[in-house]
Fold these 2 entries.
Entry 1:
Amino acid sequence: MEGACCTPSSKGGCEEPAIAQCVCKVDSSCCEVRWDFHCTRLVGEMNCGSPCSAPLSCGDPPENATCGQATPLAKGGTPVQGKTAGTGTTGGLCGGHLAPEVWYSYTLEQTALLDISVTTSFGLGVGCEPTLRPVIYLRDGCGSSAKEIGCNEYELHTDKLPPGTYYLAVDGRNGDAGDFSLEVKEASPCTGDVDCQGSPAAPACDLNRGRCVRCTSDVHCTSSFAPACNAVAQQCVACVVDAHCKDPAKPRCNSDKKICVACLSNQDCKDPLQPFCNLKENNCSSCLEDKDCKDPTKPACNLPTGSCVQQGNCCEVTPQIAGCADDSIEACVCAKDPFCCEFAWDMICAGEVEALGCSLCGPVCMQSADCKDPARPVCVPSAGKCAECAGDAHCKDPAKPSCKPGSFRCTECVGDAGCKTDPARPRCALDQGTCVACLSDADCKDPKNPFCSPAGSCVACLSDDDCFSWVARLRPGDLDLRALPLRLVLFRPGETRLQCDQESLCPTGRLL
Ligand SMILES: [Ca+2]
């Protein structure tokens, strides 16, 4: 049962005023000019009413719109021109259910391969411009019991087919429709590798398929880097079984990745100094965690290298070593910045010790008189370290009046109460200690800039999806797309999406 307002009309509006009003808010031309195919699509897409069961494309259905009316194709591989239009009735296993299709038949006198390709021109989807991204599928008959032999977009290459008549549909992705050029070529199946000698990339004959492929056994894989045939994918790979792995340093085959590796389990690690198999890297390591390190002078496991190390002072950079010597500081930093424990304790990690309030890195002190560095003039008694401040009284710069607990640095704010002076930046980003416009979308009241960016400002969009409210439907002559300062133009049948730097740059009058 077709829903209301699903029938295109040369007049504006449709039989259900509420649906018409809803759709015409999106595109006034649906009421003012005509209720066309694009308007019927909007009924469902804009949740104005029940989706129209199948989108309609412009024009009448061609004569070969059903399998029973398939146009016979002549032999010889000469391209034929065709067109899809109207309402579709079926689709293939890989798509086509929303689009109209047309049918062709091809009769094989003898067992053969079919190579099918469809080319199209792809327009803007404006008005009746074609938007066909073709889906093609091949069946062995027309009835409901017909078997689908293959389905693909743009090209379809069959395995060998027995003699008989086959039915080929040219269909479209989504609601696509339009003109196309179809080419069907017949080829003889290979009966042995000798038939595949002309194609270096596919020198092996798969007798079951009658197709030349990269390999069916190891003999086809002559490169020392990829001496094994992965029979499932018919690709040459480094290994399928351990016997393919000739390098004594990498004797095991990782059967998932089809590459030779040092180990698959601890049993493969014979060196008593490297007894553990790191299953992520598939290499033998001295340790997998700190408790594997028995030497008290090297108590920490450095996972990236798999070796036991003495970790450095958390306030200092150790480029080759992940983590740092103080477990509680390490845990505090790595909770916010996992890189520091997974790769290396770099300059950023060392800086985060203080920035994240994990610990202080200043000189040791008993009292402020011990703190000679003018950047760290105050002794924080609880930490016994020199810092920028121990309380707000030490923060003399009016732009940074608050002493942030934990990091003991002067900041703009330590809570929203510190962000009263600038109404444009009412929230305090606690990590940075700076006033920002927003911490979450809820803080963004301007409907034109409803999203809170990671930097704390309200913006129009954070991803393409956020720009949906700026969908513009363009008709021929509306504007020259090339003249617009667009960052991105996305096409879909029936609509053109524009992402604009500002709303004022979007073409006016047709915006949602
Ligand atoms: Ca279809």
Entry 2:
Amino acid sequence: MHIFKFALIPALIFFLFLLFPAGSLPGAESASPPSGNPLLSPTGDFTFGSEAILRACWTEEELRGSPEDKKDRPAPPGYSGPPERTEPKNRRAPLPPELRNSIRSVQPPEGEKILALTFDLCESSGEISGYDAGVVNYLRENGVPATFFMGGRWMRDHPEKALQLMTDPLFEIGNHTWSHKNLRKRTLGKIKEEILWTQAEYEVLREKLAARTCAQNAGQGEREKIPALPLTFRFPFGTCKPGALKFLADSGLPAIQWSLVADDRGDDHTAAQLARIILREARPGVIVVLHANGHGYHTAEALPRLIPELRKAGYEFVTVTGLLTRAREVSNFSDCFELKPGDNYRYDFITGVRALPPQRKDRMGFPSPVSSPVKGGDGGEKLR
Ligand SMILES: [Zn+2]
């Protein structure tokens, strides 16, 4: 485990030198503070979507979706196969040392109460998971920026929803692998497929949107507001291995984990309990993990209980890239885990790769060294 100091100004200078090696460093003599992370956006001037295209391409009703969207659907028989393009046309520059490990949280500048809400849109082989319209609608209605880590298969199976989220300037899209495998047990070849297929699927969808009349009429400037590729990545189950981290870093994708997990996947909590965990654990710089693929229990109902409270306490919501851009330091780790090192080894056990010594069982009956935080919390703690 390592904590790397993330000194923003030296990092900016370093990357400006990389970008302008011929000695043409623009504004290097200026003392003005850097406007953004030069790695994730060379100018610091990034956008996540286009309001004009969002409004031109979908009606209010289409954007609102339906409670039916939340349900899983069975995958048609024999349904599998790669995306129509398996290699993305675009690539990103490799990451610097400070961002090459698994990132769990950041240290914001003194006094900046920023945090990132993230929602996973996981889809494994053999299922077509859902879309939690309640989550997205609440975020939209209340202007809450958030990051959706989207599976490649999920994109392919929900093209309109994927495009709406990609186009909405409030939301950032991250890569959550093609089919939600435990990458710790995959070969490097398979790991690359899981990552690149998803980048490629995003590109294909973005190109299809760009070809629509509604997007054409909005103009090139608006179309280019939608990022060409996902900018960040999240490991399924939070399980990684060094080769996967290296490939991601070389591909310019920071591996984003979380520092606040309330486990909305279990059905043994209420919306109030879920909100209470997050309110109790919230700190400036945390990354919160939740689900929007229909597998989160009471996730949407928890949002009105926690977002106004966090705002009242002075918190500002930002996307993951927004968080990295404003960070003073990034806390990152050479291992991946849920709450503490080793606590996600049970996923290796479940997938038959690693036998664990007998120990406490979790509620699914699997060995688990970590207790679920969902049941805890008396709600009496002050927000920090
Ligand atoms: Zn997931």
